[in-house]
Design a protein that fits this description.
By secondary structure, the protein is α+β, with helices and mostly antiparallel strands. It has two domains: about 70 residues, Alpha Horseshoe (Leucine-rich Repeat Variant); about 200 residues, no CATH class. Helix content is about 55%, strand content about 10%. It has a four-stranded antiparallel sheet with strand order 3-4-5-6. A two-stranded parallel ribbon has the order 1-2. A hairpin with a 5-residue loop joins strand 5 and strand 6. Helix 2 crosses helix 4.
């Protein structure tokens, strides 16, 4: 959509009106302009000394950012939520509206290429994981952000790809995005107080009645891709005093992963006391 700058500037000037009805109509029209209007709105915010106008401009900018992210996430869910990186990028647009999927996909593609050069079909599943772990954690230097665990940046995929630091769920998303590009049967597992991945047996002809039987092993991206067996998951569940549940052992959907990621962000913003952001994120949860 092409923005008419003259019309946009005229609308922005009307935000200074004293009539609330005018403000509501103008805000609604600005909202309809979408993310393309944000640079002009930011310019107006920087050049005015009127605090009330600045507040109104901030309000419109935040609403545009939120509406844009929400719409993209809704479309992602409706179309099957297949690409986990897309979902993570659309959530990050909540905070970074100009973020593009293509730019983040390029970063994942660099990792995929490095893995692809080292991997081949003659390798066993475990050998493939050793290669991926070496490339992600040794060559590209991704690691856990334990010094600033509750920082919101750990849940925004663009910042994770930039700083190479993340939490269990965001590091798992990086790992999954690479695995997805390599067509490897790796899936997220919704384990509480951590988030792990499962490597399914790709040579089984039929899925077992008990899905746990189809899992060759588990991977912990928060611990440099350490490989785990079912016994270690049993021990972790017992240690954390959790009840035994099938969902702690078997693959979850990409939508489930996004719900975990949004809940992580809500927890981060609760610690920072950002009530408005929490309310908007809770609205995003409604999509799922």
């Amino acid at each position: 959509m092409t923005i008419d700058i003259k019309e946009l500037k005229a609308l922005i000037s009307l935000l200074d009106d004293s009539d609330n009805e005018v403000i509501n109509v103008v805000s609604s029209n600005l909202l309809n302009q979408g993310p393309e209007a944000i640079p002009e709105l930011e310019k107006a915010w920087e050049t005015t000394l009127n605090e009330q106008l600045q507040e109104r401009l901030e309000n419109v900018i935040q609403k545009i950012q939120f509406t844009h992210a929400k719409k993209n996430l809704q479309n992602w869910v409706r179309s099957g939520a297949e690409n986990i990186l897309e979902g993570a990028v659309y959530l990050a647009q909540f905070q970074f509206p100009e973020l593009s999927f293509e730019a983040q996909d390029k970063e994942i593609e660099k990792i995929r290429k490095d893995v692809w050069l080292e991997i081949n079909n003659n390798l066993t599943a475990l050998e493939k994981i050793k290669v991926i772990n070496y490339i992600i954690f040794e060559i590209h230097k991704f690691k856990r952000n334990s010094t600033n665990f509750y920082s919101p940046q750990n849940s925004f995929i663009n910042q994770v790809l930039e700083t190479k630091r993340g939490n269990p769920i965001s590091l798992a998303i990086v790992y999954l995005a690479v695995a997805q590009k390599l067509n490897l049967p790796i899936y997220g597992v919704n384990l509480p107080k951590n988030f792990i991945l499962a490597y399914k047996d790709e040579y089984r002809q039929h899925d077992s009645e008990d899905e746990k039987e189809d899992i060759l092993f588990y991977i912990n991206p928060y611990n440099k891709g350490a490989v785990l067996g079912r016994r270690e998951i049993d021990y972790f569940i017992k240690q954390q005093q959790l009840e035994q549940r099938q969902e702690y052992y078997v693959p979850c959907s990409n939508s489930d992963i996004m719900v975990r990621l949004i809940n992580n962000l809500i927890l981060s913003y609760k610690k920072l006391d950002f009530t408005e952001k929490i309310e908007r994120l809770q609205e995003l949860l409604g999509i799922f």
